[in-house]
Structure formats: structure tokens, C-alpha cells
Amino acid sequence: MARRVILTVGTKRGLFLLESGTGRKRWTVSGPHLKGWSVPYAVLDTRGTPTLHAGASHFAFGISLQSAPLKSLKFKACEKLPEFPKLNEKAADFAQKYGIDQGSKIWNITPGPAKQKKVLYMGTAPAGLFRSDDSGKSWAPVTGLNEHETRADWSPGAGGQCLHSFQIDPHDPRRMWAAVSAAGAFRTDDGGATWKPINTCVAPYVGAPEQTEVFSCVHKLLVHPTAPGVLFQQNHVGVYRSTDHGDTWTRIDAGLPYDFGFGLALDANDPGACYVIPLEPEGYSFRATNGALAVYRYGRGGKWKNSSKGLPRKHAYVSVLRQAMTSDALDPCGVYFGTQGGTVFASGDGGASWGVAAEYLPTIHSVTAAVVE
Amino acid sequence: MKATLVLPSVLRTAVGADRIAVEGQTVGAALDAACAVYPNLRRHVLQETGALRPHVLCLLNGRSLPRTTFADHALADGDEILIHQAISGG
User: Fold this and answer.
1) DSSP-assigned beta bridge partners for residue A30
2) Which of A201, A265, A289, A353 is most buried, by the most CB atoms less than 10 A from its CB?
3) Residue to test with chain B: of A61, A104, A137, most B Cβ within 10 A
4) pLDDT given for residue A224 in this prediction
5) pLDDT over threshold 60, residue A285
6) Bigger pLDDT: A120 or A208?
7) What do you get for the CA distance between the two ends of chain A, in Å?
8) Minimum distance, in Å, between the CA of residue B66 and any CA atom of chain A
């Protein structure tokens, strides 16, 4: 069977699936699936029978984790969803003061190592990490992180206190990374037993606690799928690259119109490259493109290149959330993002040109990509 | 008493059913019986204290039950317990 690219698009009103051949120019759309639910994050696990996992939220009925084979789309809910961490008093007071959502949410579901087909990880709000060894039927807290000694200083970001990014080292599955807003990045080298903050050389956010290692408002963190030790992060304050597993970070946002943004994507074929969408940090409530929707690619010579052919250049004031940008592993890589206005943009040529894959969807929370046979 | 618990369609996949045959002397007992069979029902309808979640309403034969005493209402054979979400707008 020919290979297909599947985009899972989590929205304010359900889950949508976009499908294309490897040309990635023409897309078919199905959905909404999980009708009536808000879907902050969904992913297609391709390690065995392709299976969808979706975090779902409902204003009255709370949260649910639902999974379905891609073929049948018959969703079934996890019956042993764990209790998520609670905000401590300091974080709750901060959230209350600034009107920040204190509710529970599933921010991330990550398939485990390729050889551990039943292992899944889940990142939550309030910030927590959970591991399943039975394909999501039951979950155990990763206490080394959830009860980290720095937790008292983890602050809620504007989107809540969330563990949004989780990455597994493709070369050593005992090494993993997690990123929490607003605390920073963490790494384990022992399979999750112990974690250390890795925010050296990263700028603190305004008002960050002092005398602590958790001063960073990381918005998105990704590990390169083929280059050992290479990571990127889009932070509230800058864009960074690391070549030593996150021990140190080099700021690379010089040349961008703004250092602020949420989305981040990598090119599996080029460990020196990343994609971001700079957003104008005007005031504290308006985070959008400044009229032109622009993707920037970081590449050769440490330079940023505006890679926006095909994107709207005028009167485009849109936002892209942190989970709403992704890439696939093909060559050239596909890059994808969804806007809060409900448009999914797709590039099948590494960002050289863009087209609309879907439009008029509900507010898009997340976009993830997978290649299936 | 034998009654029917009716859930909103949005809960069909989350709970595993949207019409559940229940037995109990009261609404609370019937809900408890249903929660024993469908573990996710409690998460989506009730708080840890046993109170209804905010924005969730319980109706018996089409009549809204008081939030503080909904569980105590006696059931008769053939009753219909309806779980409903808040609706706003207009």
C-alpha cells in the first residue's frame, strides 16, 4: 500500500484528520471525531496497528483520554485515568490573580521507544508526567519529575501550568526531556527516575523566581530525531539550540522579527534546521503575526530565511499555538501548522512553498503528523 | 426499582454507553450502581464529594432535581434519570 501522511488536528470542537499522499499537496479532511469534545492534543501512534490517542476536555464533564484504531475510528476511553497533580498554594494564588486556567488538561501524549510498543507518556496540566505500560489503559506518575524538589517554584504560564513537551532520545531511550511552562526544561538520563533542570544560558522570564534553576518559560522543546544531542526550543524569551543534550543552550533568534512565538518544528534531514513562526508580543494579550503570516527556517550559516511563499502576506493577524506546529520525517520534510482561526497550512517541500490543507475548522489546538503505509 | 439513566451523546464514548439500565431505591443509589459498571461515569458527572460537577444537572422524569438533594430522591419502576449539561446563550 502506498504511504500516506496523516495529520491529527485537535480543535476546540473535535478532532479532524487530514490525509494526503507523500506529495502532500492535496488533502482530504474527515471529522469532527469526538464531537462535542475540545481536543487539546492528539497523536497517531504508528508503532503497531496505527492508533489514535486524543486528550479531550469538556467544560461540564471534565477530561477524558480516548483511543481508537485509525481504521475503525471507534474511540474508547481510558477507565483508569490517573489523578493529576494539584497546583500548590503559591501557583494557585498566581493563577487566581491573573485569571489563569487552573483546570486539568491533557497537553501531550507521546508514544514510547520503538521497541516498547505498549509504552506511552502523557503530559498534563497542572504539570505532571505519566507513563503507561499497557497502551494507555492505566497510568503511573513519574514521581521523579512530578515531585521534583524545584516544584514549589513552578509557575503557571498564561495557558496554565503545563507539561507540554516530552521527548525521548532516539539513540538512548533512558534519556528523556520534559518542558514545563513556566519552569523550564528537564532531562533524565536514567529512564525517568531522576530529573535535572537544564536551563543554563536560557534567559529568565520577567518576574521569574530568583535563586532557582527553574526560571524559564519554555514554550516548546524538540529533540532532533537523527542527530545525537541536538535540541531546539522556542522560549518566551528567544529561540535556542543545544548540541549537548541540553546541558547548555545557544540563543539563535538574531535575525528574526520577534523572538517570541509558540510553534516549533524540525527537519529530520538537517540537524541544523528548525522552523518557527514569530509572533508580535504587543502588550500581554495580543500574540499574533504582524499582518504577514511568516514561517522562518533556521539553517545554513546560522541564518534565518523567511520561508513563506504561499502564506498570506497582508492583513493576516493569526496566532499559532505551541502544539499546533509540526513536521514529518520524509525527505524533503513536510511542515504543518494550524491557526487559531481554523486554517491548516502545509508544506511538502521543507517550507519552500505552502498551501492550505484545510480551512474553516474550529480553533486549532494541536497538529501532529505521521506517515503510515 | 428499575430505572433508566440517560446520558448526553457526548459521553457515549467517554463512558461507554448513553442509556444504562439501573436499579436502586434512590437516584444516588442508581448512579452508584451505574458507576460500578461504568467507572468513567463518576469522573464525568460527580465530584469527589459525591456532589454533581459544576454545570451538570440531574433530572428525574423531566424535572430538575435540587443540586443538594438530588441523590436522595426515591425512584419508582420505569423512572428516567437524565444527566444534562448547562446551556447558555441567546
Assistant:
1) A17
2) A265
3) A61
4) 97
5) no
6) A120
7) 6
8) 17
Torsion of CA B3, B9, B12, B13, to 10 degrees: -170
pLDDT of residue A286: 58
A-B contacts (CB, under 8 Å): 52
Across the interface, do B85 and A66 touch by the CB < 8 Å criterion? no
pLDDT recorded at residue A283: 66
A64 to B45: CB separation less than 8 angstroms, yes or no:
no
Structural contact between residues A182 and A156, judged by C-beta atoms closer than 8 angstroms:
yes
Dihedral (Cα; A210, A212, A218, A223), 10-degree rounding? 150
Q: Report the C-alpha gap between A107 and A324 in whole angstroms.
A: 12
Contact state of B15 with A75 under an 8 Å Cβ cutoff: no
- Of the partner residues B40, B56, B86, the one whose CB lies closest to the CB of residue A77: B40
Q: Which residues of A touch B (CB under 8 A)?
A: 34-37, 56, 58-62, 64, 66, 75-77, 79-81
- The single-letter code of the amino acid at A2 is A
What value of ipTM does the predicted structure carry? 0.95
Across the interface, do A60 and B11 touch by the CB < 8 Å criterion? no
Provide φ and ψ at A284, rounded to 5°.
-125, 10
Of A61, A66, A76, nearest to B85 by CB-CB distance is: A61
Predicted local confidence at residue A284, as pLDDT: 58
The CA dihedral of B27, B30, B36, B41, to the nearest 10 degrees, is: -50
| Grid cell digits, residue A41 | 492534543
Give the closest-approach CA distance of B68 to chain A in angstroms. 18
Tell how many helices (H) and how many strands (E) occur in chain A.
2, 30
Question: Mind spelling out the 3-state secondary structure of A21-71?
Answer: ECCCCCCEEEEEECCCCEEEEEEEECCCCCEEEEEEEECCCEEEEEEEECC
Contacts of A211 (CB under 8 A, 6+ apart): none
The answer to whether residues A361 and A145 touch, using CB atoms and an 8 Å cutoff, is no
Q: How far apart are CA A307 and CA B60, in angstroms?
A: 59
Q: Which chain A residues are closer than 8 Å to B13 by Cβ?
A: 34, 64, 66, 75-77
In this prediction, residue A112 has a pLDDT band, given cuts at 50, 70 and 90, of very high
- Write the DSSP assignment of A254-276 as a string of letters: TTSS-S--S-EEEETTEEEEEEE
Contact B53 A59 (CB under 8 A): no
